[in-house]
Amino acid sequence: MTSSVSKGCFVFKPSAKKRRKTPTVEDYFTHGSEDTENSKLRFRNYQILWEKMKADTELLQDELNRKILDSLLAFIRKSVSTFQRGTDDWASRMRAHEIPTAALVLGVNVPDHDMTFQCLSDQLQQSVTPFVVSVQATECAALNNMMQRVLERLMGTSVSVGNEEEPEQRSTNVNQKRVHCSLITLCNWYKAVTKKAASGTPSKKRTSVGKDMQQHPPIVVIFKDLEAFNSRVLQDFILICSRYVEQLPLMFVFGIATSPSTIQHMLPHSVSSLLCIELFQSLSCTQHLASVIDKVILTSQFPFKPSGKVLQVLVSIFLYHDFSVRNFIKGLQLALLEHFHSQPLSVLCCKKEAALVHATELSHRDVERLQQLPSFMRYVEEQGPQEQVELLTSDDHVKEVCQKLLNDLHKYHKNYYPILRCLHILTSSLPKYPLGKQIRELHISCLEKNVWENEEYASAMQLLRMMAKDELTSALKMCAEILKPGKTTKMRAALLQLDNLLAKFDQPDDLAAAENAAGEDLTSRGKGLQKKTDLFQLQKTLLEMKKSRRTKKMSQFEILRDQALEFIDSLVRSHLAPPESQPLYEVCYYSSSAVLRRHLNATPRTSIQTALSNPYHYLKNENLLAEDGTVSNAAPDICIVYKLHLECGRLINLYDWLEAYATVVSAAEGMDPDSADFGKVDELKHARFIQAVSELEFLGFIKSTKQKTDHVSRLTWGGC
Amino acid sequence: MAAQLQHIGYDDKKLQRVMERLPCRDVQASMLLALMGEPEQCSYPSIFIYGHRATGKSHVIHTLLKELELPYAIVSCVECVSVGLLFEQVLLSLFGSDSVSLLSRSPSLSDFVRVYKQLCVQASAKQTRYIVLDRAELLRNMETNLLPAFLRLQELVEDNVTVIMLSEIVWDKFRPNTGCFEPLLLHFPDYSKGELQQILSEDSHPSYSPELYSAFINILLGVFYSVCRDLRELRHLAALNFYKFVEPLEQGKVKEGDTHKLWRNIEPHLKKAMQTVYLREVSSVQWEQQLQMEEKEAGAVRGLSAHAHVELPYYSKFLLIAAYLASYNPARTDKRFFLKHHGKIKKTNFLKKHEKTSNHLLGPKPFPLDRLLAIFYSVVDSRVAPTASVFCQISSLVTLQLLNQVGHDDQLDAPKYKCAVSLDFILAISRTVSFDMVKYLYDFL
């Protein structure tokens, strides 16, 4: 087979047998852990949890997109029907033929849009038209590329651009009619296809599509990222399309990341007048994030919880850097994976029933780990001496207690989230949002410490004490709604109490009665006043009256309000304690935010500097270990050169540098410092030095300069 | 009128029909006919016709050639993404579908000439052939020999062929450096107001009298003539607003003769149309809906430019602010704005003579990445690690066209950028992060 005349390079793929089995994700996960069973179990936990999370978030995103997609589909259907109406009436004959265009504003994170567009084209293909094509700016650098992409994807065949030679194809089928990349081709193809569809079997795959749709299904072209398109290319494409708009029911969808006025910036009036643009605005990405957090994090459904710091890292990456919900979910996945990978006790982090079963099956090692958990140790200390001994010696007893604690932890979560929501509802309408506008801010502050010890909490409560009746009752009613689905006894009791309070708020009669009583009291005191004649006495009674009036001023509503707030306060104090207070919280909470930050928010510059100044950090070679701030002689050349250059000023004399380098390297080679050759520059050292210097230049630490001969200039400041 | 159009060689009836279809363009049409001469006569090699949009260039040529049944090919250059496509379309319309197979896969000009000659011999025509190239200005961007070759195609193919070029720009902008054959120039002037009125009145609504429609057109032109003389656009606007115009008639409030009342009814709508639908702020479909909805919900549809707000990540906002400052402040003044102890330096000390004009009038200036980052770190209030995502944001700002990269796209070493947003935009952005932009701008010192 290889006995060909021509010279060439042949690739032989190894046969399937020889090839080693590629390791699966699970292998990577369990690699390096001493307890394979345990880590396999953890991996399974992780998979189950992630699948569920993924499905949930996808469902949520579908739901969020639905509204905008529905209106878009309606728009496209409507445009189809106007196309079909044709040139019958006067107005449509007279009107310029515009291409219906939907401007879809999707927010600045472009990679996030892929899913929306996928969803859109799927739905279009299902219910409106089989002819949907999406193009991206990167594949449409020139007009002919763009035409080629559009035609290829629509017609499902390869279309020649005309200027590339494809000799193979030509030799094989000479008779085949060449397909040129023009809209005439598309027009003919479209006519043929629609004719076939009309005469052929209509039950083919578009049975659900309406009859009128079948005759002239529109051709929808989706421009995924309008801003990135070359405006010249886009203009030409639109001009060409507009020439055929009477024969082809063309339709555009513009994916816009910034604002709709970009269309006007990109297209001159002569081109934009060919379009009939309608605007569709999607949900803002911050709202999107809020609903994702609501669904995935603020729920007791998932046993995995990110700690306050971790959540803060994820949210700040979102808010400060990318606005990408997809990245947020990816980050959450990473946290999930890290948690199950690094925490052996995360076997217990799964559904309650499964967790209880796993708790009984804990190995001795795991029990030891359990006993070493800080939260468990704290729990042990709180127990009586007898119990303490039991907990530290008997594995079985620990397992039993562990089950009980797991149960408690689940209950804690079940109570925590409804109360969090209630508190958020009450405080989110306050001026200046003392506890945060978004529920995630409140959640984070609750995770960090006792929320009721915050100053903000106190001020929020003070503001709540001044709330008007209708506002307060409506908020409390909403709280009752939230508490309703709660199944724990505590939640039910809370609901009952809240309902009682609400019922009292609704009784206006009591209020009047109470006011009457207060009035009577006042007049009786007034009588007492008349008797007194002493000035001092008078002053005293007046002061008393004033004081009492102030206290008396409390109407029935105010008393009730105080009661309600006290009730809420008690709920907060009993249920919103931070998770650190719960024993075994380490099982569910992932808290190494630093790891997450390092992975998600890479700092290339810092990494390079660490590598150069402390090579041991990456190379893990014992020889490189050195005292703080110094570099061992055995370090790679570039590290030595880097270290030496830190000692220089803005301009570095290359020769001095070389000398210094040679001295260090000679010391590393173990030369006798007193010998004549010590620190002498030989060819090899010279070459190594040149290489290291050019590497530094490549990394951007130095550059050549014309200011002084034989000098280079430093590009960074500071040093040792 | 038709009396002037007695041209030998053409059927009088046909000429009559042509003239009916070409209102207000009879001077140009007769000139063209004179140039074309009798069908069998040899004609001038190339004619260049120019005039603004919608002045009837294509329409006149198309009608003439079609109605007089002459052999012709009309090609729009904007469609021809490759030269091959252009040649193919010409051959297709002149010689039928078989001719195309003679062309090679990616034909050159000489291929085209060869094939043309070959086909000419086979089917030699007595009449002049016409090749019409619409939007001929695009020929300049194609291969350099194309335009000169088309101008003297008659000589090259040795056939009685005339190339007619249509364009919106004048011939002076076409003339190549190397010189070329000069075509005959023919200008199509804009339609005057009266001519527009005459043409637009012709397509009256079948259920209303032509006089009424003519009155409507009169009102329409009164509003729009000052901003728009594009026939196509005016016709579109007429169609969109006519139903609103006749609405009082339909309801029986006004009689047909009462033009003043009709005018009072329609004028505000037309004025509004000028600001919205004409500028494509509001699409025509939305406009029609809006008209049907009555004044109750007037202003319900917001134009495209009303949605100027852009949501950006926090650091992107500061990067954009930094880019704006770097683009509009001279680099010398950075010290004054971003150093803590700059001392008191007045603007007059800085002022150089040529900098007296506002930087905002001169437009954004390019700045290197280093300067952008230096300003960024000093304006952002918290400590920011130089993470990869900060750099990512710069490139995503470039794709969003809020920043422009100056020079090559693949420049790795010290790329330069320009800020591409307006002052209003950046002020809105800086308000959201409560950054006092004006305090940092040299122009507003």
Automatic annotation (TrEMBL), chain A:
It comes from the Eukaryota. Pfam families: ORC3_ins, ORC3_N, WHD_ORC. The keyword Ubl conjugation does not apply. GO terms for cellular component: DNA replication preinitiation complex; nuclear origin of replication recognition complex; nuclear pre-replicative complex. Residues 2-348 form the Origin recognition complex subunit 3 N-terminal domain. Keywords: DNA replication, DNA-binding, Nucleus, Phosphoprotein. Residues 605-717 form the Origin recognition complex subunit 3 winged helix C-terminal domain. Component of ORC, a complex composed of at least 6 subunits: ORC1, ORC2, ORC3, ORC4, ORC5 and ORC6. ORC is regulated in a cell-cycle dependent manner. It is sequentially assembled at the exit from anaphase of mitosis and disassembled as cells enter S phase. Component of the origin recognition complex (ORC) that binds origins of replication. DNA-binding is ATP-dependent. The specific DNA sequences that define origins of replication have not been identified yet. ORC is required to assemble the pre-replication complex necessary to initiate DNA replication. Binds histone H3 and H4 trimethylation marks H3K9me3, H3K27me3 and H4K20me3. This is Origin recognition complex subunit 3. It comes from Salmo salar (Atlantic salmon). The lineage of its organism: Eukaryota, Metazoa, Chordata, Craniata, Vertebrata.
UniProtKB/TrEMBL annotation, chain B:
Signal peptide: none annotated. Component of the origin recognition complex (ORC) that binds origins of replication. DNA-binding is ATP-dependent. The specific DNA sequences that define origins of replication have not been identified yet. ORC is required to assemble the pre-replication complex necessary to initiate DNA replication. Residues 312-441 form the Origin recognition complex subunit 5 C-terminal domain. This is Origin recognition complex subunit 5. GO terms for cellular component: nuclear origin of replication recognition complex. Belongs to the ORC5 family. Pfam families: AAA_16, ORC5_C, ORC5_lid. InterPro entries: AAA_16, ORC5, ORC5_C, ORC5_lid, P-loop_NTPase. GO terms for biological process: DNA replication initiation. It is found in: Nucleus. Keywords: ATP-binding, DNA replication, Nucleotide-binding, Nucleus. Coiled coil: none annotated. The keyword Flavoprotein does not apply. GO terms for molecular function: ATP binding; DNA replication origin binding. Residues 21-164 form the Orc1-like AAA ATPase domain. Component of ORC, a complex composed of at least 6 subunits: ORC1, ORC2, ORC3, ORC4, ORC5 and ORC6. ORC is regulated in a cell-cycle dependent manner. It is sequentially assembled at the exit from anaphase of mitosis and disassembled as cells enter S phase. It comes from the Eukaryota. It comes from Salmo salar (Atlantic salmon). Residues 213-280 form the ORC5 lid domain. SUPFAM superfamilies: P-loop containing nucleoside triphosphate hydrolases.
